[in-house]
Amino acid sequence: MKFFLIAGEPSGDNLGGPLMAALKALDPQAEFSGVGGPAMAEQGLESLFPMEELSVMGLVEVVPKYRQLKARIRQTAEAVAEARPDALITIDSPDFCLRVAREARALMPELRTIHYVAPSVWAWRSGRARKMAKVIDHVLAILPFEPPLMQAEGMSCDFVGHPIAAEPVASAAEGLAFRAANGIGEADPLILCLPGSRRGEVARLGPRFDEALMQLRDRMPEIRVVIPTVRGVSGLVRDMAKRWPTAPVVVDGAEEKRAAFAAADFALAASGTVSLDLAANDVPMVIGYDVAPLSRMLIGLLLKTDTVTLVNLVSETRTVPEFLGRKCQPGPMFKALLDLIENPQAQAAQHAAMALTMERLGRGGEAPGLRAARSVMAALSSARRPR
Q1: Distance CA 105, CA 308 (A)
Q2: Which residue in 56, 284, 313, 353 has its CB near the most CB atoms, within 10 A?
Q3: For the whole model, what pTM was predicted?
């Protein structure tokens, strides 16, 4: 079978790679084309253009790149029609992917469409599922409470597990080796600083996170800071770190990052899937996030839930402190970190919530990539749903 896949950011690429591997296991003759990053390239994808061009987030942040993104949408839709795949599989990045799906279906009306990662209609903009149903046949959900929301709008949907549930974590010994290699004592409190995977996130959150950690250093001089980062923002993070009074350790290799998570005691992180990476490694956290002022105002008007932290949502608790929008300021985040470090009960509550989260996301079960591939094949073998 032939598949055209689109991933627009690192998290989507990390979903696409295992999905492609599983599709090849189910169909050794599977062929792939599309847009993706290094994980998908490892499975044989030659990206139509660099995936990093699509890593834009926020209602206002997209505007300066609108013309370029519109051209890429057209180019990608035309490539889909030319490839004539058995299915178009779009992975997250809905603002780009669903526009491609609409234009591709206009060129190829019989196209079967599958979207991997349901839109967060439980949080805001509930009408997105209804709009998505006009161009998407089947949804692969990674959160257990999402299928009914998609099915209610007429799409088929399977919960396939979250990929974090199957990802390997480093051992305690590897964590200790990381500390030793970076001159961090076994007893030194190690804080992960995770200001995001997009340039806009790093530029906006990095200085605030650093100021919060500087205040923590003033209270606890023995703390050490490690910043795991990703391709695309690594240079920006390293340039920023050079200006910090106490230089943190910056790591961007996969093995080093896994070891850093195993070595960590606590984390200050941007909102997003990184909270699940921390949960997988049992690292208590404080979450902060902000966007451009206009985006902040619009999102605030549309937000439907009192938390956006996935650990809080999946575990149905509110154990992880979060500071969003105007509340994302160094002082409050510093105080929350200090309270977490000094409060064993708060740590225990987070440990319990993180364990429950990982259980509900499928830890110990069949690999999510394989579950997703089985769902794709089942959806393609069924008759097209009426429109």
Answers
A1: 33
A2: 284
A3: 0.78
Domain that holds residue 129: 2-162+364-381
* Statement: residue 384 has pLDDT above 80: no
Whether the predicted pLDDT of 126 surpasses 90:
no
The CATH number of residue 372's host domain is 3.40.50.2000
| 117 dihedral zone (left: phi>0; alpha: psi -120 to 50; beta) | left
**Tens digit of each residue's pLDDT (9 = 90 or more) over 19-44:** 999 999 999 999 999 999 999 999 99
Residue 66 burial (CB count, 10 A): 10
3-class secondary-structure state, position 177: helix
DSSP 3-state of 227: strand
Residue among 253, 274, 258 nearest 169 (CA): 258
Cα Rg of the chain, angstroms: 21
| Together in a domain, 149 and 214 | no
The rounded mean pLDDT for the chain is 90
pLDDT in tens, 202-247: 999 999 999 999 999 999 999 999 999 887 788 888 888 887 666 7
Residues 151 and 47 grouped into a single domain: yes
In tens, the pLDDT along 166-190 reads 888 999 999 999 999 999 999 999 9
Residues 204 and 328 in one domain: yes
Q: How far apart are CA 312 and CA 275, in angstroms?
A: 10
Q: Which residues contact 227 (CB under 8 A, 6 or more apart)?
A: 192, 193, 194, 195, 237, 241, 248, 249, 250, 251
- The answer to whether residue 386 sits within a structural domain is no
Assess if residue 167 is contained within a domain.
Answer: no
DSSP string, 77-132: HHHHHHH--SEEEEES-HHHHHHHHHHHHHH-TT--EEEES---TTTB-THHHHHH
pLDDT of residue 246: 65
Q: Distance between CA 267 and CA 133 in Å, rounded?
A: 38
Residue 247 lies in a domain: yes
Number of structural domains found in the chain: 2
